[in-house]
Amino acid sequence: MVREDRAIKFPTVFHYLSYHYVNMAYENDHFVDTQKNVWNYSLWNEDAVFQYQRGELCTAYDFFGAHKRIVLGKSGYYFSVWAPHAQKVSLIGEFNGWDAHAHPLYARLDHSGIWEGFIPGLQEGCLYKYHITGVNNVHTVKADPYARMAELRPATASQTIDFNYQWYDRSWMKARKKHNALDAPWNVYELHLGSWMKPNPFDENSFNSYRQMADLLVPYVKEMGFTHVEFMPITEYPYDKSWGYQCTGYFATTSRYGTPEDLMYLIDTLHQNEIGVILDWVPSHFPGDAHGLYMFDGAHTYEYADMRKGYHPDWNSYIFNYKRGEVCSFLLSSAHFWLRYFHVDGLRVDAVNSIIRLDFSRKEGEWEPNEYGNNANIEAIDFIRKLNSMVYSDFPDTQTIAEEASDWPGITLPIDQGGFGFGMKWMMGWMHDTFRYFKTHHHRRSFIQDTFTFSMMYYYDEKFMLPLSHDEVVHGKSPMIYKMQGLEHEKFANLRLLYGYMYTHPGGKLLFMGNEFGQTSEWNESTEVNWHLLEHVSHRKMRDCVKFLSHLYKQEPALYENQFTPDGFEWIETNKRAEGVLAYKRKGKQKKNDLLVVVNTSGNNYTQWGMTVYGKKAWKEIFNSNDIAYWGSGEYNNEKMDIRIIDKKHLKCEIILNIPALSISIFK
Length: 668
Hints:
24% of the residues lie in helices and 23% in strands. By secondary structure, it is an alpha/beta fold. Among the domains are: 2-159, Immunoglobulin-like, CATH 2.60.40.10; 205-233 and 245-408, Glycosidases (TIM Barrel, Alpha-Beta Barrel); 566-667, Immunoglobulin-like (Sandwich). The strands form eight sheets. It has an eight-stranded parallel beta barrel with strand order 11-12-15-18-19-20-21-22, surrounded by five helices. α2 packs across α8 (325-341), α5 packs parallel to α6 and α15 (488-504) packs parallel to α16 (537-555). It is elongated, with a radius of gyration of 29 Å. Residues 1-22 have low confidence and may be disordered.
């Protein structure tokens, strides 16, 4: 009777009461039938289930998936999966010959849709899936949504694993609040791990491992002066050409490059070299692969059932049902998982515009307005706010960065002020206007100068990162060097000018791999970056130019201290349209650190150009993109400058400059 009373107190074991007690043991509030292949054992509690269903459980990975445990002295793995429409769920794998009848899981009696069980004797490294009998007897075989490791594609099974990595990045983690602050330099090198560099450039299926990348990538990034790297998605995905944006494993590192602990080693090495790590994370959509989330238990479980909300016409993928608390808990937990276990410093959240808009890429009649009659996906916006609240509460020394291409207001505004709460937003408008300007021949640029200056009209609406990303150099987009106009030397001069403009414009910076030396082919995920171009002096010196700008950006406080406040920027000259000359100041917290930037977007060289400036009576040229060191002509530089004091009391001076064609110069 004592045990029967306990069974009443813990309803998850009701179905054990018909068994003889001789086959049963008791541990941690659970009756366990030791004669079964699967023991009815649980990690869940009522509070966790409640939070999960409300969309507020940020650590669902502590309960779902495969967890190594010792129960009644037996080592094995506990499994838990959410399949609310299922009639039966069983674990299948190489350990039972993929037999759907050998290891049935138990449904919790709280109607949560959670199935669970403990399998004694199961070892680390076992391949497994869930066999689900769903509504209308529909059978699905699915990978574990919470698996921490997946089988190497094209195979699709999940794999048991137990993390045992020893971190050595304590110094970085202790100080990273300073490195990841919004008044710190953000110079991000975006890369695709599979195509940055290959062990065999002629074999598209050859990849450097995460550990090999630590040896190859880290010294390069450090030498180039980048402050952070951004990895394109490395959560498990089945199709190489999706670049990781069609994700099937939201808690698993892609096995293409090694194990989760190998990735930890790469991140650890980057941190030890004072380089932050941003992960490209995709909570907007997922593919329809048979082993993935789509129709998980024979019904629309993770995606909206109404395909006007649940299907992405552009990407042939499915949209998360942000109205379901369990789905929101899944996504929140994925973000939390990478920040917690992999020590990442930020998440670049993909396709935010598609998340928050009901009419994204849909024609009239293909979408239904919300209850207020507009195009806002209210529950998705609520999810985004929960995400950012969670990140900045639990990991206050990290950042979230929105890839959001519209003019939807408040993306980086604090949540308590009605915003979305992101740390930064990609400045897509700046990128498009900049390309339009530099694609225009310098003879005609005077007619569209507003395209060059317009970004500062709305810059303070958000906290922006300036992206020159992978999306702009893929098939049909042209590499950076061929977006530029003119003869070869003019193309390189224009590109140096563009990069100088980016590094001296307020905001964070992002440069995609290969852009730093003027790659001449569009990016292809199957081939490595055109490293052979560095044999040519023009490309080698282009890289030297970016390297100098990268280090200068970190060294000069005026370029980052006030990068998100109006105190950090001032136009000095915008009225010389015909000549193509513009000038602006970048200002730090101390006046002595102010910088003067002079831009010449025309094809003319100017000598003895007078420019009026305030605040200092001594200036020195610290960078000129026309320097011979960067494959410029080396002419019309400013080794010596004439400076005439006009008003000593107000420190008004006229400086006399040489301004080379298609150049940018920085004075301190």
